[in-house]
Design goal:
This protein has about 210 residues and is of the alpha/beta class. Helices cover about 40% and strands about 20% of the residues. The chain starts with 6 loop residues before the first strand and ends with a helix.
Amino acid sequence: MTASPRRALLVIDVQNEYFTGNLKIEFPPVETSLPNIGLAMDTARTAGIPVIVVQHDAPENSPVFAKGSETWQLHPVVGERPADHRIHKTMASAFAGTDLAEWLASNRIDTLTVVGYMTHNCDASTIFHAYHHGLTVEFLADATGSLPYENAAGKASAEEIHRVFSTVFHSNFAAVTSTANWAVAVRDGAAIPRDNVYLSNRRAKGLV
């Protein structure tokens, strides 16, 4: 019999910057993602799953996440809920320059569930880092979000960025699911399967 996952819920950068600041999340809309983040935290608390809250710190003169500013503060949905561990970071990955890896190891966590912002930046960096660290990773796609980009390399909408990164995650790095489905898996002590590169490519070609 397969052992139940030893999960921790990682809540990444749910700060006012993404709601009232210069980096407003567009897809999924925050009216969807924010309640699901709260639901994930409540589900974890009820199930005895530790909750880790991450907050990004930037210099006080930064246009985003300026430490000590109103937009740097955690959104009340997260800030007013309890956490088992809190991390401040200055780089994209929640592992970089923090004690996250050591904390997970000391608590014998083998599965990291990621929610928060942004899908393509801090979430992605953390997911890749966790995967290469040997952890099983879950990504709750409706409790996260992206914003649009345009630069010398091209242009992409928030929906495109979120969809493409979610598809890539599920092909190899993380099991992508909804908050509701995750809550059922937590209740049942079940793992959530992810896909693989080979089959993801075969499906795209209509061969599976």
